[in-house]
Structures are given as C-alpha cells and as structure tokens.
Amino acid sequence: HLNRPTSRPKVVVTRNLGPDVMPLLLERGDLEVVLWPEDRGCDRNWLLQNAVGATALIVMVGADKIDTEVLDSAGPSLQVVSTMSVGYEHIDIAAAVKRGIKVGYTPDVLTDAVADLTVMLALMAGRNVRQTMKVVDDGQWPTCPWSPFLFCGPQFSASPSRPVRTAGFIGFGRIAQATLARLIPFGFTNCIYSSNPSSTPKTSRDLELKAKLGLASLASVTLDEVAARSDVVFVLAPGGSGTRHLVNEAFLRKMKRSSVLVNTSRGSLVDSDALAKVLSEGLIWGAGLDVVEGEPQVTADHPLVKEPRCAILPHIGSATLETRIDMARLAAENALSAIDGKPMPASLNL
Ligand code: DGY
C-alpha cells in the first residue's frame, strides 16, 4: 500500500482484529485499510511509514507507542487514534488534544473479564496455587506422611474465627466495583478504597452501592488505611506517572501478615523490588499479579518470579474470547464513527 496515491481515507490497523470484526473495516469500499500483516507486535518503522496520510489509527496497548513522532508521520489528515484497550497511557493525549485528534478506547466491555480474573488471582495468591501446581507438574504429588497443615493458606471466605473480611481498593472505578460485587458471597462485608485525591467525593454513588451490595461499610480512606485494614488489597487504578509506585515498601510494610496483594491494572503501580522483599520476609502472605513493571521483559530470574507465593500471569485480564471480540469491535466502531463524523461509542473526553 505504500506510496499508492489514494483519495480514500486510510485506516491503519496494527493487529488483525479477527474474523468477527475485520469485515467491518474491509467491507467499507470507501476506505483504504492497511493492516500490519504479522501475528506479533507491529514494527515501529512499519507504523511510521504506513501512518503517513492516515485518517485513523487502530492500535494496541503494550505494543504501539503513539507519540508525537507517529502523530507527525500521520500528519494533518489524522482524525482519530482508536486503541483496543481501556488503558491509554501509550498515547500522548496532550499531543492528540493539541492537534484536535480524537481518542477512542474500550471501557466497560472488559470489566467483567478483568473482575473475574482479579478474584481468581486473590484466591490463587492466598491458597498457594503456584507452589501446589508445581508440585503436581513436577510429578511430586505429596504422599504420606499426611501433613495436617501442608500448603495451608488464609481462608478467603469469612469463617467463624475471622467473620469480618475487608476488601481494600486502590482506585475505585468500574473494574474495582465489579470486583467488589463478586466478593459479597465470600463474606466481604466491608470495603475501603483510596482513589484519585483530586476527584470529588462520590458520596451518593457510595451510599447507593453500599445499599445495593448489602455492605456493612463502604468508605473512602487514606492509602495508609487501605494498607493497614484490608485482608486483600486490590490495585485497580490507571497507570502513568501520577500512580507510579503507590504500592511501595512503606505501604507493603503496613499490610497485615495474613493479607494478599492483587494487581490487575498496571505494573508501574507496584514497586517490584519492594514486593519481592516483603514476600521473602513473610511480611504479607502472598501476591497475585496480572501485570509487572517492565513487562514484557519479565524473565525467570525476576525477583517476583522467584517468589513462590507470588502468582503471576502475563497480562491476560481481558483475555476471554467474548471480551476480546467486543473490544476489537468497539475499537473499529470508534474509528469508523470518527471518520463518518458521528459520535464515537467510547471516546475520551478531551
Ligand atoms: C487494557 O485494556 O488496558 C488492558 O490492560 C488490556 O486488556
């Protein structure tokens, strides 16, 4: 497609969006669709070359950095950058605003998938899933002598000895609230959260949510209180410089020894070295991570990978077939709506 003169608006897509969604783009004869042809992250040079003269870029989180270099390459024809993700820290939003470029993203459609996985990681971290699966994988199923307390961890559900369970959230948006709803049957009757200090208190939202979920308490508190009072701390705030290392050594040292940390948002929120340290010192029980700072460069000798009570997944929070198709469709619809001059189904309020 390079250098081919065309009067049709060009849509550059950095990954194949699959058979359910690609036809939405390809069947639009009035558009020129340029697709990165390989099943791996799009090469930066390919993107820079193909962005030239584009009207829309449909891009991926983690792989594509949409900075001023890419925006400059595209030039004044660019109307919209649509990312197939709810996170958008890979896009230079300020630069997009300056140029009047719209930005589309994919909130809501992934909330349930990520909330499901968040609960799964909390259970995995508490119940020694990493160690116990390894024992089986290695053909070392424990035989006799039967050991009453082998592989025991703290119970996730409320129990007669610990009837009050408190869920703590760093960030309390859509995914956090969906996670909280899933925790109710486990007996989490108390919820505390710490959110963006510059946002206005959500008193009526909280009263409504408390009543709807039948919680004993729901309160916005300081970060320190989230650390000290939670049985499980869920990290679910956006990435970026404002939230970097909110979970640092001081935070982790304030957590209960029996508590678990779960991060399904962005790796940058948690100081990996500090987490590895407190895990190795037994200062918290365990961790469940879907994201790690510096990913995808997380090798077997990473300090967190070496911690047996740290269950780590390679950023698969939204990886259900249903959700990924919905995300791809929303990314395509965002781009097409912007091109057609219609309201985008999910655009950032720039
Ligand atoms: C997102 O959408 O931002 C997730 O991290 C990828 O599923």
What multimeric state do the chains show?
Answer: single chain
Number of helices: 12
Tell me the β content. Answer: 5-15%
> How many E-type strands?
12
List segments where confidence is low: pLDDT < 50 over at least 5 consecutive residues.
none
* Radius of gyration based on Cα positions: 22 Å
Structure characterization notes:
This protein is an alpha/beta fold and 350 residues long. It folds into two domains: 10-109 and 322-340, Rossmann fold (3-Layer(aba) Sandwich); 111-312, Rossmann fold (3-Layer(aba) Sandwich), CATH 3.40.50. It has twelve helices and twelve strands. The chain has helices spanning 22-26, 44-50, 68-74, 93-98, 111-126, 129-137, 174-183, 203-213, 223-229, 249-254, 272-280, 321-340; strands spanning 10-13, 32-35, 56-59, 80-83, 102-104, 165-170, 188-194, 217-220, 232-235, 260-263, 286-289, 310-312. The strands form two sheets. The chain has a seven-stranded parallel sheet with strand order 8-7-6-9-10-11-12, with helices on both faces. It has a five-stranded parallel sheet with strand order 2-1-3-4-5. α10 links the parallel β9 and β10 (260-263). α2 runs parallel beside α3 and α5 (111-126) packs across α7 (174-183).
Kindly list the characteristics that best describe this protein.
single chain, 350 residues, alpha/beta, Rossmann fold, 2 domains, seven-stranded parallel β-sheet, five-stranded parallel β-sheet, 12 helices, 15% strand, globular, binds (2R)-2,3-dihydroxypropanoic acid, NAD(P)-bd_dom_sf
